[in-house]
């Protein structure tokens, strides 16, 4: 499809179909160089009110738009997005610090999200007996606020927008101040297709999220982020009984059985630990290795991790870029320091990166720290991982499940039946057998315990944007 005009160096909030600037601006930085990126407007309280008012007004028409017409509009949005995949790839490299392959993967994953959602249809159940006909249907919940994180700013915003619009909701997106650019530009592009107020974006600072969560005229919050923030959102939403979908933090275990092919499996486990510099909610964050292969498997992990090339996102040789922001960079550095102060053994010690600027950390591996240590108990969300030794299956299952998190897990074994049996015992929303966490729009992403509430994606995730209604017709 022919490209439309879209300036990737000027950014706006989008309210009621209009591009809005502001007297107050902010900016993010390129994590590869710490250089200033583009200015973005800081939404005012009036912008928030206008966006909520516009979303409610647009809902009146969009909610009764025939389903197939909504499908067609989403397909048109996909079509005008497609020529810009490379532009969005470059934008993600700049704002996230992702190497080209990772940034391109995220930009192309948007097409997979479109493909999957455009194949969905609203379910309806009709039951008839002697006295009545009852029809169960799903109706849009109303106005949605999507509060999105910095690690996957496109996938985790568009992954909320598409199902919301598909079901007849209107949506206001609040991107992270660390990575505002791709979401702002994606919603700006959508204005060429959708009526004003159907999809809007307002960002700028940390006051906007609470304003949306507490607003009486917003009906649902879709949030991806930390468990601590998710708890605050849930508490605030209780005042108006807003619907909430919360995709929160994880501390994902990997259990390694002694019958694995070590040379094949260890690099895959390492990839699961350090993909996007470990800044992934379903990244492997604890590795449990059977004692009989512990030394050889750990050596193979060290060898694989040592081959990762840490550098600038734009450098073609880079396989692991910088941390996305200074806040997370300092948190991980503090965890590394704590492990050093406690005297834990590093199988792969942290090493310095030759760079004057940028949030660079090399991968490091902690060798069998105490199970109660911070590096085991806390979610690192960065390029450091503990490996622990196990010998008894029941004990390692208990250890893997022994946290308040329950987002993802993986089980690795040459005996696929055994691995699947153990996978079913994991207290996690997504469990991967003989693979690191490879999520897909076709499977629901949800968390157990403190890793979330509700779910997204899959064949039923879009129903989280609906209320259920049963119509009883008596004969």
From TrEMBL:
Q: Which GO terms describe its molecular function?
A: aldehyde dehydrogenase (NAD+) activity
Give the matching Gene3D superfamilies: Aldehyde Dehydrogenase, Chain A, domain 1, Aldehyde Dehydrogenase, Chain A, domain 2
> What CDD domains does this protein map onto?
ALDH_AldA-AAD23400
Task: Look up the EC number in the record and give it.
Answer: 1.2.1.3
Keywords recorded for this protein, A-Z: Oxidoreductase
Domain of life per record: Eukaryota
Q: Does the keyword Magnesium belong to this entry?
A: no
Q: Does the keyword Lyase apply?
A: no
- Reaction(s) catalysed (UniProt annotation): an aldehyde + NAD(+) + H2O = a carboxylate + NADH + 2 H(+)
Q: Residue limits of the Aldehyde dehydrogenase domain? A: 22-471
Q: Which residues form the active site?
A: 247
Similarity remark: Belongs to the aldehyde dehydrogenase family.
What is this protein identified as? aldehyde dehydrogenase (NAD(+))
* Organism ancestry: Eukaryota, Fungi, Dikarya, Ascomycota, Pezizomycotina
